[in-house]
Amino acid sequence: MSVPCPGKPVRGSKSGVPIMALFDILGKNWAMGIIWNLQEGSSTFRELQKRCESISPTILNTRIKELREVDIVERTNDGYQLTTRGKELMELLRPFGEWSRTWSKEVFNYSKPLDN
């Protein structure tokens, strides 16, 4: 499996600077949805598929493999969960959620309560 890797060309960067490699990984279909749904704790494949609603088993399996390869998700006896690095990533993403709520209200007049 080939995941975006720093130092190699990725979407948006011919040089593959680390931040662009990360954005390429996170920008893949359902990657953020999986990470978001694992922030509350571990989940089996079937539970995670239900949480992600419309995700196909093939896409879920592919994304889990990719996220495991880059040390964001790990397999445990209880299913899949965020690694320490994945939890750190979620903590860094929380301010983006706060920023996006303000942005959506001010730019789009959108004020529906969001999960995070």
From TrEMBL:
It holds the Pfam family HxlR. Keywords: DNA-binding, Transcription, Transcription regulation. GO terms for molecular function: DNA binding. InterPro entries: ArsR-like_HTH, HTH_HxlR, WH-like_DNA-bd_sf, WH_DNA-bd_sf. Residues 5-108 form the HTH hxlR-type domain. The keyword Amino-acid biosynthesis does not apply. This is HTH-type transcriptional activator HxlR. It comes from Clostridium chromiireducens. The lineage of its organism: Bacteria, Bacillati, Bacillota, Clostridia, Eubacteriales. The gene is hxlR_10.
